[in-house]
Amino acid sequence: MTHDRLLIIDFGSQVTQLIARRLRELNVYCEIHPYQSVTMNMVRALAPRAVIFSGGPDSVTREGSPRAPQELFDYGVPILGICYGQQVMMTQLGGQVDGGKISGGGGTAEFGRAYVEPKGSLHLLDGWFDDGREQVWMSHGDHVSRLAPGFEVYGTSPNAPYAITADTTRHFYAVQFHPEVHHTPRGAKLYENFVRLAGFKSDWTMGAYRDEAIAKIREQVGDKRVICGLSGGVDSSVAAVLIHEAIGDQLTCVFVDHGLLRKNEAEEVLGMFRDNYNIPLIHADESDLFLTALDGMSDPEEKRKTIGKLFIDVFQKHADTIENAEFLAQGTLYPDVIESVSFSGGPSVTIKSHHNVGGLPEKMGLKLVEPLRELFKDEVRALGHALGLPPSFIGRHPFPGPGLAIRCPGEITRDKLAILREADAVYIDQIRRHGLYEDIWQAFAALLPVRTVGVMGDGRTYDYACALRAVTSVDGMTADYYPFSHDFLSETATRIINEVPGINRITYDITSKPPGTIEWE
Q1: One of 180, 245, 379, 521 is an active-site residue; which one?
Q2: Which of 3, 33, 140, 178 is catalytic?
Q3: C-alpha to C-alpha distance for 192 and 173, rounded to whole angstroms
């Protein structure tokens, strides 16, 4: 099945991924490509039905600043320019952009909330201006001072006289604000109107993706075998079930139990896969190996490196027992691909390195199978639903590879891990009882390397302090603490202290990210 495609040309905006998310929510398939990699040969191969130019930090008034291929404007598809994308369109089509103070000009910059007033009727804006004006989010220093030939103005703001412009004959649209961010409340409607005007069928569904992915896996793997490192997280679980649907017993999963899992986690993961999917599964219980190596270790970076090295050694030891294995399955997601290299094979600027799991493919001479590399996290969960995974697995909070090692600051001991497991289990049980689990991105307990004096009954205690953490987030890059009620925190603290020997004090972490990280180490 061939989907209608939309090309997003990325000029370096921090929120370009949000454009893609808004489009995927409309069941429109889109790909993000950095402007350096966009050639007309690539465009013709992709055959997009429409193109969006993202925002970006540069100034079009600077010599050598990013541009789109000039031929693209004669390609005959609708184009929408966002912020810097609008300025690129005006500059390349014969308009003018004046520099703001940031780029050395004298214009007025505009950052934050603004209100756009309508100027004329435009189908791109159907559903807008019901209240006479619309709130939008501006983030620009430069501004358009003269429209390109064929364009007219359809919206203005106090500091952006050309906030919304369009050449309706050529189906070119351009806005100075960012419709993709939630500070533009009706921004999603603008994208919905754009893809409707461009004639998209909106057929990008997880049911369709599932069928196409299965066909691709079968074609790639043939009669060879695939090994998959199973963590029990949503990404590896969905990848494993999808690959198993495609090739059956040619897949073998390796579940490495490093002794740093949450309470009953190994049993839950193994039970789900063995009871529901009959996937060949190796349970590598190597907890003694890991915990012996970590005994007394307190430096967080040393913990991570030790766990990572041992994981590679253990995984390879068990993978070597699988004959004819030529492929390693990974749960790589589209955000990882965007930040490293285009999944369609074109060159791109590297924002951060995307590391394969532990460097295993290079070390073992394996080829990669990455069936989720075109999906965002929310789409992976939707695919999990389409595959019939239990909701309890699809909606699980993220869990770090080093496990409880980085939720136990200071020295790691088996006794401290046992206390932490119990405290964490009570905390998560409280969250579920109060119906809050799905509202929270991630929640966990951390056992602090601090012992405090307490009074329980008529006796003095000298036990550990425990910190509770719960955050809301979209993608984990930024986060804010969850605003529990005082009643909830009081009830939870009472339960942990009463039910978990070894803890006599509870704190709640209200640090956002930044400046803090979500995990403690």
Answers
A1: 180
A2: 178
A3: 14
pLDDT band for position 170 (50/70/90)?
A: very high
In the residue annotation, 519 being an active-site residue is answered as no
Q: Are residues 252 and 281 in the same domain?
A: yes
The token duo for 507 is 């704190």
What is the phi/psi pair of residue 81, to 5°? Answer: -105, 130
Same domain, 247 and 345: yes
| Number of residues in the chain | 521
Mean pLDDT of 487-516: 94
Query: For residue 348, what are its two tokens?
Result: 């791109």
Q: Residues with Cβ < 8 Å from 418, sequence gap 6 or more?
A: none
**pLDDT given at position 305:** 87
Of residues 417 and 355, more confidently modeled: 417
Q: Which residue has the tokens 């699809």?
A: 394
Between CA 42 and CA 108 the distance in angstroms is: 37
**Residue 140 binned pLDDT confidence (cut-offs 50, 70, 90):** low
Summarize pLDDT for 225-256 with one digit per residue, the tens.
Answer: 999 988 778 888 899 999 999 999 999 999 98
Question: What's 437's domain CATH number?
Answer: 3.30.300.10
The two counts, helices (H) then strands (E), for the chain are 15, 20
Total domains in the chain come to 3
Domain that holds residue 501: 413-508
Residue 180 annotated among the catalytic residues of the structure: yes
pLDDT of 116 reads 92
Average pLDDT over residues 448-461: 82
DSSP per-residue string spanning 470-486: EEE-SSSSSBEE----H
**Residue range 251-270: average pLDDT?**
90
- Return d(Cα 1, Cα 473) in angstroms, integer: 34
> Are residues 273 and 379 both part of a single domain?
yes
Catalytic residue status for 83: yes
231 and 193 in a common domain: no
- CA distances to 290, 328, 471 from 310, rounded to whole Å, are 7, 18, 30
User: Among residues 30, 83, 228, 408, which one is catalytic?
Assistant: 83
Summarised one tens digit per residue, pLDDT across range 307-338 is 888 887 888 888 888 888 888 888 888 776 66
